[in-house]
Structures are given as C-alpha cells and as structure tokens.
Design a protein that fits this description.
The protein is of the alpha+beta class. It has 3 helices and 7 strands. Strands 3-2-4-5-6-1-7 form a 7-stranded antiparallel sheet, covered by helices on one side. The longest helix has 16 residues. The mean pLDDT is 94.
C-alpha cells in the first residue's frame, strides 16, 4: 500500500484537473462522498452491472461542487480496469480531500492468496507512473 500527498500549493490546480479534465476518466468509481452544507454520497454501481466510470460521474460532481459552498471533505474511491498484475482481483486508489490537502492511498485485492507483495509493488509502481505521466507532483506521506 502506498500513501502519498499533494503539495499544498498544488491542491487547487489538481482539483481543477480532477473535475474538468479527462485524467481519471478511465477509472471506475466505487463511491464518492462530499461534505459541504450537507453530506452527499454517490454510489458508483451502474444499473447494468459493474461500476460507472469517472467520465460519467465527473460532470455530476462538478455541478454539485459548483453549486454548493466549498467542500470541507471529499473522498473518492477509484478502481482500475488495467491489467497491472496477473493476480489482481481489484485495484483501488483512494483520494481524500480534507483540510485543504489531498492524500492518496492505494490498495489491491488478490485473486489467489500469495505471500509475496509483487501485486502491491506492481500497483504502486503503476500509480507512481500514472501521476508522473499526468504531471501530478505527489510525495510519499510521512
């Protein structure tokens, strides 16, 4: 598992990218929680099975944030459909916005039990490359 954070100076730009650009559009969305004047929860489960993509959920969340006061808290649980490792049952990226900061954690579920950490390492490396490729400057969280 990887725990990372954005530099506080990059949060505003990142939030604009998250809500207006296609960077995360290929990811599936498991859940979204936003706390402004009320707490709003979006279940990413699609009517036809599976999960909605960020491309489908992003415009809705953008409108919610645009119409409400600045969020105090936001949590998005993404899942990845890419073939990152042969033993990957599910790959998660958790994004949390709180106290004007953004943190990320990764998690991976195995298809078959294994003692080695190769799945975790492969997913964490994939995510580091994803952030670098998209110009998102993250650092390991202390």
């Amino acid at each position: 598992m990887l725990a990372m954070e954005l530099d506080k100076d990059n949060v505003k730009g990142f939030m604009a990218k998250l809500l207006r650009e296609e960077i995360f559009d290929a990811f599936e969305v498991r859940t979204v929680e936003v706390a402004t004047t009320t707490r709003i929860t979006i279940d990413g489960a699609a009517e036809q099975g599976g999960f909605a993509t960020w491309a489908a959920v992003r415009p809705l969340l953008y409108e919610i944030i645009k119409l409400c006061p600045k969020p105090r808290f936001m949590k998005i649980i993404f899942s990845c459909r890419e073939e990152v490792h042969t033993n990957a049952a599910a790959l998660f990226l958790n994004l949390v916005y709180e106290n004007d900061g953004v943190t990320f954690t990764t998690a991976a579920a195995q298809k078959e039990f294994a003692l080695d950490k190769s799945l975790d390492f492969a997913w964490d490396d994939w995510m580091r490359e994803f952030f670098a490729k998209n110009g998102l400057s993250v650092k390991d969280r202390e």
